[in-house]
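Intended use. Records such as the Exportin-T entry shown here are meant for training and evaluating sequence-to-structure methods. They are not intended to support clinical decisions.
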Amino acid sequence: MDDKQLLYAVEIASSPDQSLRQQANDFLRDVVIHCDQWWPLALSIFLKGAGAPSSSEVGKDGNQKCSPEARVLSLQVMDQLLGDKPKTDALSLESRAAIQQAFLDYVQTEFVNGAAEVGPVQSLLRNKVSHTLALLFISSYPTLQYPPLPSSTPSLLSTLLILVKPQVNPHTTLLVLHTIVEINQEAHDTLLKSARAWTQERNERDAKLRDEMREREAPAMHDACLTVWEEALGRMDGGEGQGWAEVVEWAVKAYGGYVPWLDITMTVTPHSLHLLNRLLQHSHFPFRLLSLDVLSRITLKGMKDPGEKIQLLNFLSIVNALSPLEESTRAGAGDGGEVDEFRERTAKLLNNFGIELGKIVPPEALAEDKTKVEAEAMLELSLPLFLNFLGDVSTDTSSAVFGMLDDILRRNKRAKKGEALNLSPSKRAFFTSLLNVIMKKMEWGRDADWSLGGEDGDVDPEEVNNFQTMRKQLKTAVEAIANIDPDLFVGSVSNFILSTLQTFQSQGAGGVTWQQAELALFLVYSWSEFSVTRVAGRAAFVEIPPDVQAAIASSTKTRKASFSSSDGMTDSGASTPKVNVDYMSLPLTLQGQILISTVESNISSYPHPAVPLQFFECASRYAEFFKMRIDCIQPTLGSLLDTRGIHNEKPAVQERAFYLFHKFVRDVKSSLNSTLVPSILESMSDLLVIKPVIPARESPEEDLLVKATLTASAFDAQLYLFETVGILIAVLKDSPNEQLAFLQAAINPLLALISSNLQIAASGPDDIASILLVHHSMMAMGNIAKGFPEPSDAALAAAPPPWIAVFKQSTEAILAVLERMNTIKVIRDAARFSFARIVTTASQRVLEYVALFVKGIVTQFEPSELVEFLGFLGLVLHKLKDNLFDVLDGLVLPVIQKVFQILAEPVSGTDDELSHNALRAAYLSFIASIMGARLDAVFLSPTNKPELENILNNVIGFASEFGDPVLQKLAFGILSRVTIAWATNPSAARVTLAGTQGVGSNVAGPLPTTQVIPGFEGYIYDRLIPLCFEVPSNPAFRIKDGQAQLVMSEVVNLFRSVVAARGQEAFDRLGGVFFPSINCPPETAADFLNQLRTLDAKNFRRWFTEFVKSARDAQAATLKPVRDE
């Protein structure tokens, strides 16, 4: 093919005809790939017409210059050739020499004597040419070629450096400078190196190139760059035009590129530092930024000798150079323009300087070490400048020194917990200033637009997010200071909080800005995170005498022990009396004083939404304090109920207040005066009106019902109010009639909504509003039920309270909805949600509705609902237990069949794989729930027993799912339970294992012997015991992994369950049958049985893990090396 055909292909590559364009692009891509065949033609196309002012004009060779597109393609072909070492090595010496000479001739013709690629594509072509020249320089470097050329052979760069004469032709100078920058990037740039695949060959080549250049080209290259830099800067300052600015910038970029890898004694001299300082003070803004970047590169230069690094940093005199610049630009900070950008870059330079000083000598170095002393002195001199940047009004500038901040804090951190750190007066003064700067920086900006969400159109969410991120980082720094000097932290922070509260209390909002008030409350909220003592519970707020603490601890321990009775059931623990403590009479701790001051200051009345909302965050976090100081509950509730809280006009604030109000009421309900409940409910009533929001349809196939229920909305927050209603009504337990009246007042409007919209909604899926009203009403009823406590065994044994009738009525309404609307998924979801919560509250008193409910759900649900349905069944089983036998008997097989029908479907992507994994886990949890509810007899009913072996085999299959240890753990847990349930031999010779109190201890408790399956022990010995060895012995089982160790715990539990069920027979079968069948040495078998008998579960797991590892290693040694992990 001649050049005309290739040029034609380039032309049609931009054709409007897509088919032609695709063919041309495919062809040109092939040309680049096969560069070793096409490079002569490509080089010819690029060189034609060199020196011509533009394409289509005739150059010095008498030919027309080709189009820019064709010439760029030609350079891509050459780049592909020169960048591929095997292809370059395959070139003959003549070809390499010809290519180099061709490009040198081109530079002479086009740049030295020609128009230097003028025109709109000048910069593109110049950049491409410089990159090609850099690749050509590296690929043709004399000592890197094979065989290497004499070291006296001039390199391409040496020849190009001769052409650097800015006073004659700045275009040539710019080309050479660009080439130097490209060489730096190819040979050293860490960012580019990290972006490309690492190879040993490339790494060694780059290292050798740098070594060679240090000896050969470096001096001339450095001299040329400084000469150009100085001359061009002088011409620019002399008024010869801004055109010289580009020359200066590229000279400095070239210099900054080789500084990290050339000898510092050559590159960093009084002359070069003088030039950098000239740029740092220059009126041309890009020069100032460029000088800061180069100084950062010099500062970060790696050096082995700490003493030499100290000398370098001392020579740079960074602090002296930057201090006046920081001071002169401080007044203009915060305008978002050049000043902020300059200050940010300046702060980054200081940040690098501080971190490098910290690296020079480790903290454990001797105090009298000269280098350490000098480094610490330099660091101390930089601290005032550091504080100025840290406190800068711009978040970007402040964040730029966070690395130095972290380094300072890390180096001063106490060596070990509880050890006092003796700070010198100067260090203590610094940390005091640092803490004050950090706290000031943690304030919202004076002109900041505060917002919680996107409802404020004028608020920039990115700006809010940046501030929150910065505040989180600064809070970590405060925590570190608290760890370094607790007294300093306590004094400074508590003083700020208390003085802010006192000023507001005496002067109102006029004496305190909203930013100060919000910060004070944020620090109150964070106090427990800052506290170095980490005192938990009520002792954080009051000083509890030691004898009272001991009595409380003893009572708590006894009550916890009484919660678990010998048969595994729970009781109330009421037989153990609580210790009565008059907390109101106890003196407050500092945190308690801060909280009482927070309430008494009435800071929640501040007329800015950020302040009361932060107060509510504090109240919800420190509810335990309010339970001791019940006099603080009512005023806090008052502020939560009015326009500061749940009646706030800002939707985002109101919705957050809904949650905080719910959390506060939930946590203080035991201390809440029941006489307050009616007025609280009355204050909430106007917010309980349900108003469904119908989202906009974005595509014809979009399901608006699903979108409306899955998209976050105000109703999600409103559900917290409905749950709070249930909590408050439950507080009225001592006034059953009043409690019933309020519950009816809350539920009846929801029932009315369901009734009035049911007929409309059931007529079809088009009336979105009516369907959503029914959905929301059911969800609201479920949340009201959720607010009621779970009944104790004693409560279930007593007569049902009057309010049970209301929840029965609610359940009947849910069933009526399902009867008419169970074809609508969101309705099924809401019904399942609400019924589950009513079951939790009413327990067996709604048992009569379970069968009808399950029938209404199971006939229609989609595969995607099966996981939630299985979870729902597990909850119902847990609450109603043996009362559900008949319902479960007819449900087990259809559910299992549905599960495996779905699991048999092919997996077509990540989503399918995740949903299948979730279904497997839900299925095993369902089986475990049946066993845990002691309803395992359902598997032995005439309906289900024929499928029992298949069910067990499936569980065994999941136990062998090596990619999912969660499934394996669940499966082995089930196998332990079935072993106890169906294989316990009450007449067997008992064996008490270490760590147990008798049969079944530390394993699943034995069930009535009427459930024992004759001969089931054979299944255990034939299938389960081998499984216990096969799974952990498989190389696919990552035995060192933490989750795998949880599986190992369940494997050990299965071993122990077999012994608990079969007694001495288990040891006889293992020792006499199983181990001989696998050719296990008798001494190994005996050791296993002895360890199983004498070690507790935890220690036997450790022993068995090592046992398996040894067996795997031995097997690997006899076969071939197998990588365990």
